[in-house]
Each structure stands twice: as structure tokens, then as C-alpha cells.
Amino acid sequence: MAEPWSGQSLQALPATVLGALGALGSEFLREWEAQDMRVTLFKLLLLWLVLSLLSIQLAWGFYGSTVTGLYHRPGLGGQNGSTPDGSTHFPSW
Question: Which residues span the membrane (predicted)?
């Protein structure tokens, strides 16, 4: 049968977990430094993604109200302002 958890093993658990995470982190850094071309490619792609998202955010800040105005015009005729107010040709049952 398994032994119950003792207070001493519970106190050592955070140190063990942090040690394991530290080992994984150092291994990741060693691999990261060994793969120079992959790192460069990753950094370029990350930079491209950040710049793209930033430019989308800036463009929406400048033109967002114009784009929203194209889709939501005020008026009586539906969402786009072009739906006739009269009845349709389809029967309602």
C-alpha cells in the first residue's frame, strides 16, 4: 500500500518542481542557442506578426468608423439601408 504524504515531502515538492522546470528551461536555452538559423527565422516571423497586428490596429483606429458606417447606415430600410419598406413577394403563412 502507498504511504500517505508526509509534511516533509510536501515541503520539498515546490523545490523539486522548480528544479525540474529550471532543468527544462536550461535545456531549452541550450537547444535555442544551438539552432541559430531557426532562431533567426523565428525572430523574423515573430517580428512580421507583431508589425502586422500593429498595422491592423492602427488602420482600424484611422478607418474603423468609416468601415462601420458602410455596414450600419441609419434609416428605416434594414441593416444596409436598401431593403424596401413594403411587403415582399413571398407569401407569409
Answer: 12-29, 41-63
What is the three-class DSSP state of 65? Answer: helix
Three cell numbers written together for 23 = 532543468
User: What is the distance between the alpha carbons of residues 33 and 12, in angstroms, rounded to a whole number?
Assistant: 32
State pLDDT tens for residues 30-89.
Answer: 877 777 777 778 888 999 999 999 999 999 988 888 887 777 656 555 555 555 555 556
SS3 content of the chain, % helix, strand, coil (to 5): 70, 0, 30
Determine the Cα–Cα distance for residues 18 and 16; give it in Å rounded to an integer. Answer: 5
Assess contact for 76 and 85: CB atoms under 8 A. Answer: yes
CA distance 85 to 91: 16
Residue 39 has a CB neighbour count (10 Å cut-off) of: 13
Place of cell 403563412: 93
